[in-house]
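Ticket opened by: R.M.
Priority: normal
Category: complex prediction / small molecule

The reporter submitted a protein together with adenosine-5'-triphosphate and asked that the result be attached to this ticket for the collaborator who will pick it up next week. Submitted input follows.
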Amino acid sequence: MTETVVEVIDVTKSYAGGAGVRALDGVSVGFATGTFCAVMGPSGSGKSTLLHCAAGLDRPDSGRVLLAGQEISRLREPKLTEARRRRVGFVFQSYNLMDSLSVWHNVLLPQRLAGVRPDRDWAREVMRRVGLAGRENDRPGQLSGGQRQRVALARALAGRPEVIFADEPTGALDISAGREVLALLRDAVDGFGDLGSRSGERSGTAVIMVTHDPAAAAWADRVVFLADGRIVTELADPTAEKVAAQMTAVSAR
Ligand SMILES: Nc1ncnc2c1ncn2[C@@H]1O[C@H](COP(=O)(O)OP(=O)(O)OP(=O)(O)O)[C@@H](O)[C@H]1O
Ligand SMILES: [Mg+2]
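Result attached by the on-call engineer:
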């Protein structure tokens, strides 16, 4: 299976003000369906900008972005939002949960906003898989950081996205909570083992994850390295050691 779920083609993006920083400088990269890719690079190298452009949260100045074959870089609101809600899940470093809503309502919120009837059975299943069955009525404020991030992951998975974008999802977590979140992202990519056998069930989602941590990147199938708004190298079947060595090389450029 080598289909591409997200294709970024020669994307540039600059921000006004200051020296007119070119955050992305002609980036082309494809992300395969059902695979886990980490994005690394020094601070300010354009990782978040790449994620935002690839996810349709931000618009490139030039170049194209295809999401499941649809050119989202040309879409205007509300079609862009619709494409995002149908195909994409998000996990952020700071969880981005609504503190006034219960865990359960947080998980269902994207589907409600999209105007689709939430699939409650699947949402319950997802809550079980992230280890939060029974916490549905809690408020996010009653949960630990690791639990909150697992709620964010359940929220992302509840919409059965083709791709989950994660920007430093373990950045605010300790090692053990971070490892749980990474294992769940890995499981989501691997289709949670048994889901592939259920008829009509798509196997895993793709995950595109920005991280600073070589140990986190080692959970991925592939790592791409950014420097100064360009992709400078990549690594298949990463280990923490290989990633750390590559990061040192990239930072020394
Ligand atoms: N909203 C913005 N306005 C102006 N400049 C921005 C904005 N967002 C990003 N930039 C600039 O674009 C460049 C790339 O930023 P980006 O946030 O993509 O980097 P990053 O690799 O995610 O960094 P970090 O590891 O610190 O999160 C940086 O020079 C940054 O200062
Ligand atoms: Mg960033």
